[in-house]
Amino acid sequence: MEILTVNVGSSSVKLDRFALADGGLQPLAKHRGADAPALDALPPPAVVVHRVVHGGTFARPVLIDAPVEAQIAACAPLAPLHNPPALAMIRACRQRFGPDVPQLAVFDTAFFADLPQVARSYALPRTLTEAHGIRRYGFHGIAHQALWRAWQAHTGRGGRVVTLQLGAGCSAAAIADGRPLDTSMGYTPLEGLVMASRSGDVDPGLLLHLQQTAGLDAARLQDTLTHHSGLLGMAGSADMATVLADPSPAAKLAVDVYCQRIRKYIGAYAAVLGGLDGIVFGGGVGEHAPAVRGRVLADMQWLGVRLDGAANADTDTDARITHADSPCSAWVVRVDEAGELARAGQQLLAGMA
After folding, report:
1. Rounded-to-integer distance, Cα 283 and Cα 114, Å
2. Half-sphere exposure of residue 53, counting CA atoms within 13 Å on the CB side?
3. Which CATH homologous superfamily contains domain 2-136+348-352?
4. Which of 45, 56, 144, 191 makes an SS bond possible with 2, Cβ 3.0 to 4.6 Å?
5. Helix (H/G/I), strand (E/B), else coil: 7
């Protein structure tokens, strides 16, 4: 029996095949940069498991049917870079494998479904929040769960950890013994850290000002904040490696702002957690940009972080980058979202047996 996982990101498509045998999962093949026509070359799986960024009120994986598709579509305006292509892949898989192959949706928002009320609430009139279902949903939940799992595997312990998913989209989470207490993304994936082309935190008063004085309507504001801000807006490129290699003042400032925002969230989450045992980096930038990690962790001895410069420079993934006696250890790990998706598929098949 095979499980096919489908992960449509804001800048990538990842297909992974797993064999289910003897109660375990065995990776078979990875397909990167694929699109719907590439499905024609794959054998029909026992189940297809999709990463879906915004699931609204869904708090756990669900079998995809017409009402679930409708909910994913209804959430598309809140995750415009992710939900529409995820829907397209769901329909492409149905066309390729037929309606009898079950498809499972695993939502990035589910990991944060039970955020403490103090962390999920906006200070807006209750009449608005209740009428429109307004709350901080959080995103990248599958990645943060994988980062937490990696922390446990490498350290053999629980504890108070800040996980950092740094890719085209970027987010931070404060996790205490496996339970998320806060996260940087909110009602949409726009809130929080500086990203490749997304702004992250912006004063809402500034947006009102741009509406009133620059003539930017809601559609243009969304396009600006989602597609033309972040590293791209500040430095002219959405690629961190390109920005790091650019000697211009604009590029240097973009990297400084990017790292400063991460440092602020680490400090805030240390307060939320009541101390910090670990920091875990993942994602394309988190795994492959030692310069970014170094700037983020510089001069954090006050927090118990003793960065090992040689380890940080020499490794990309699955290694500690702080000294052995550092009270707060920092790690770089490969984010195994496919593994998390496959586990959900395995649980589904076990329940159907």
Report:
1. 24
2. 27
3. ATPase, nucleotide binding domain (3.30.420.40)
4. 45
5. strand
Q: Which value, to the nearest 10 degrees, does the dihedral of the CA atoms of residues 159, 161, 163, 164 take?
A: -160
CA–CA separation, 339 and 27 (whole Å): 9
Instruction: Give the C-alpha separation, 336 to 293, whole Å.
Output: 20
Is residue 336 part of the annotated active site? The answer reads no
Q: What is the pLDDT of residues 43-87, one digit of tens each?
A: 999 999 999 999 888 889 999 999 999 999 999 988 888 899 999
Please name which of 46, 76, 145, 55 lies closest in space to residue 348, comparing C-alpha atoms: 46
The domain spans of the chain are 2-136+348-352, 146-332
- Evaluate whether 138 touches 183 at the Cβ level (below 8 Å): yes
* pLDDT tens sequence across 31-49: 877 454 478 888 999 999 9
What architecture (CATH level 2) is domain 146-332? 2-Layer Sandwich (3.30)
pLDDT tens digits, one per residue of 276-309:
999 999 999 999 999 999 999 999 999 999 999 9
Please identify which of the residues 16, 108, 182, 336 carries the catalytic annotation: 108
HEC states along 113-181? CCCCHHHHCCCCCHHHHHHHCCCCCCCCHHHHHHHHHHHHHHHCCCCEEEEEEECCCEEEEEEECCEEE
